[in-house]
Design brief:
By secondary structure, the protein is mainly alpha-helical. The chain is built from five helices and no strands. Helix 3 runs antiparallel to helix 4.
Length: 107
């Protein structure tokens, strides 16, 4: 489990519960969709589209300081490094992050 750095989000949210809710919903929808897309593109052998999906997910991962942000950046430029294991690690980190985000918003 990677701990999220909430510093940036705390500044952005200014304790606005609506902002927190919207951010969490956006993050959840984005990562679920993009991880699934990367898995499909890996299976299809479309590394160009996998690269684009990694690029799209990277800013959200960076915003909350997930270690997989570096992996996503690497996949953006070297999609041939993708594997089911790597994509599962990204998904697991995002799943963990979602739980931490929900706990943060509940405070």
């Amino acid at each position: 489990m990677s701990n999220i750095d909430f510093t940036y989000l705390d500044v952005l949210s200014e304790d606005d519960d609506d902002f927190k809710t919207e951010f969490i919903e956006t993050f959840e929808g984005t990562y679920v969709e993009l991880v699934q897309k990367m898995k499909e593109e890996l299976s299809n052998g479309d590394l160009d589209q996998l690269s684009k999906a990694a690029h799209q997910l990277k800013p959200s991962a960076k915003m909350i300081s997930l270690p997989c942000a570096e992996t996503l950046e690497d996949l953006q430029y070297h999609p041939d490094k993708a594997s089911e294991k790597v994509l599962k690690e990204i998904e697991d980190q995002c799943d963990d992050a979602l739980q931490q985000l929900k706990e943060w918003a509940a405070k």
